[in-house]
């Protein structure tokens, strides 16, 4: 339901003498109002109630009232030269009310999503590392994670928990490169986690901004500012310092993590360069769901040809592994793997990419600290210093990007 607001704007002066009504053309007729009028601005500022007014100058209101006419007093003399006219417009009835608790609710929802994002990421890294230590086949482990994610996506669409998309052939062709680099990025991450500590893998992955700047300059023509380049120096220096003093360092784990950075940032660049037409665009969650299913089909042949079928109970028992324990931890890791990425896209729909980048930096700090405490990873003072410098550089990079994005909008 809406109420009527009265606004004042410069226009023709009010007449000095009221005109006697001589027909409908010179009268403003209002239907009887069940509620008083409100004075207020058109932009929804606080309204002030007044008694019902009339638009006729005839003082004999008893006769006119029967026909729906109401009378108005003669204009006040000092108002005659103001050059103001009265106009009526419709505004929401709640225009003058105080803001509801909606922003607080949205803040609580966003905070809960960030908490789930971090929690799922912590559990994924812990259980995934335990699985890879006992079962050193990263391609098979990655395939199992895509398989569980694909099952969840299909259930989500089947139960109408999320709208099932209508995909065209052109969209699938555009998404295929994104699915390919998404597959490689997660595969390289698991390869690195299987070779080095969780904390060291995430320290190396802190170099993602460096690859983002390089690839954006090469393929998108987006050249960084001096401030952005300056923020990359502590990232590169901190990773180098941490690598020199890392107890679990080996080149296979190092280059796998670096390849993960390259492929993950290539996915971001490709998503800009090969974006589907605007009228056919997909939301982030739907895009991630389709990429998950496509990654399963892309990785399955390679997994069978390189590592074979080694996830059967018979093979695991022959290898002396606890089948139930390995299956349980693999399932939890796969569920958390899909959940944290799904929540990440949900957050990205609510905040800017720069805010998401800051949250990702904090998430990496949380994962490194919890993994060091859980696995009791030996960390030397210099190693810790290098990790801290790298993460500080990532945070500085995020702040510089935020300032840059604000400058563009102003």
TrEMBL record:
Protein topology in the membrane: Multi-pass membrane protein
| Chain ranges passing through the membrane | 108-127, 134-157, 169-189, 210-236, 248-264, 285-305, 379-398
Sorted alphabetically, which SUPFAM superfamilies does this protein's record hold?
Answer: Multidrug resistance efflux transporter EmrE (SSF103481)
- Start and end residues of each stretch annotated as Disordered: 1-25
Recorded hits in PANTHER family, A to Z, give: SOLUTE CARRIER FAMILY 35
Locate the compositionally biased regions of type Polar residues: 1-12
Q: Name one GO cellular component term.
A: chloroplast membrane
Q: Where in the cell is it found?
A: Plastid, Chloroplast membrane
Official protein name in the record: Phosphate/phosphoenolpyruvate translocator
* Keyword entries, A-Z: Chloroplast, Membrane, Plastid, Transit peptide, Transmembrane, Transmembrane helix, Transport
> Which molecular function terms from Gene Ontology are attached?
phosphoenolpyruvate:phosphate antiporter activity; phosphoglycerate transmembrane transporter activity; triose-phosphate:phosphate antiporter activity
GO BP field: phosphoenolpyruvate transport; triose phosphate transmembrane transport
Indicate the segments forming the Sugar phosphate transporter domain, all copies. Answer: 108-398
Main subcellular location of this protein, as a coarse class: plastid
